[in-house]
Design a protein that fits this description.
By secondary structure, this protein is mainly alpha-helical. The chain is 68% helix and 2% strand. The chain is built from 13 helices and 2 strands; from the N terminus they run H-H-H-H-H-H-H-H-H-H-E-E-H-H-H. It has helices at residues 2-15, 27-46, 48-52, 61-86, 92-100, 117-138, 144-172, 176-195, 207-212, 220-237, 263-273, 277-290, 292-310; strands spanning 248-250, 255-257. The protein starts with a helix and ends with a helix. The structure holds 3-hydroxybutanoyl-coenzyme A. The site of 3-hydroxybutanoyl-coenzyme A has 31 residues, from helix 2, helix 6, helix 7 and helix 9.
Length: 311
Amino acid sequence: DIATLEAGFQQRIDRGDKIEPQDWMPEGYRNTLLRQMSQHAHSEYVGMLPEGFWLTRAPSLHRKCVLLAKIQDEAGHSQYLYSALESLGVDRDGIYQQLLSGQAKYLNIFNYPALTWADVGMIGWLTDGAAIVNQVPLSRSSYGPYARAMVRICQEESFHHRQGFDLVRKLVEGTPEQRQMAQDALNRWWWPTVMVFGPPDEDSPHSRRSMQWGIKLYSNDTLRQKFVDQTVPQIHHLGLTVPDPDLRLNEETGHYEIGRIDWDEFSRVIQGGGQCNRHRVGSRRRAWEQGAWVREAAACHASKQAARQAG
Ligand code: 3HC
């Protein structure tokens, strides 16, 4: 019966077994994976947009090539994740339509504009830095296809993180105007990045169950603290200021304590009311419509190839 199956399933999770697509899984486990993995895939896909704006404006050919490579990686990450979703028996187009209809969530951070070249650096350094803190544990997630997708993704994220840090360092070592540009961008990106880890543990409806199932390995606040402890010294090293007057190092715990996070802003942004939500979804929708002929041509080519092979 179902209770025995569920108990056996939980024992497998507790033993550290990987759950594979052909294995029995509780409906709730599958739905949680569908929710988290689809939001994750959409985030990678929408995540290309703020930086994509700067591709034709990069200050040198070298920076342009680096940025192009990073954005291509993000498209690749979303493809791994959409493929991992297919292993749960869902249709890729159906999942994607939920993004295009504005129904699906993706990370809050991508609804902010990249106003200057320094913002491109902040996205790499801070956002990808946060993504690494969040995703390295996910490579030990209980669902095999999700965990395996994370391994390659995290290796690439580490290149993204370093190019972001390098970009910001160059600005900080430049003219006073360039240094100011970096500080202004940090002021814009710090708080939205701290929010990336999701609501505080006591307000996170999914965490407890997801952690029991080994889908998430650490709570939102645990990972947020890790990111803060890791990033604040880097900010100080560059001679920049964290835009938080309440930030302090607790000598006893060895952890940085941050000021109050504006969770109202977070809710507004994830419910579609951020600065760029409409623009982001609109531009994905345009790309889908304008790319229709490519999908049709690819399908036509594939069916001709198949017919040729069969003949
Ligand atoms: N942005 C948008 N929505 C968020 C959010 C965020 N930062 N954090 C939480 N939420 C949403 C949840 O999706 C959930 O909404 P729902 O009930 O409608 O599905 C609600 O807020 C409650 O949050 P919970 O904490 O209960 O939700 P989770 O247990 O799913 O935890 C999470 C949220 C920590 C974001 C988790 O889903 C997770 O670890 N996801 C995978 C990480 C991810 O998506 N990474 C994207 C990286 S993109 C990237 O790296 C691009 C870069 O290369 C530029």
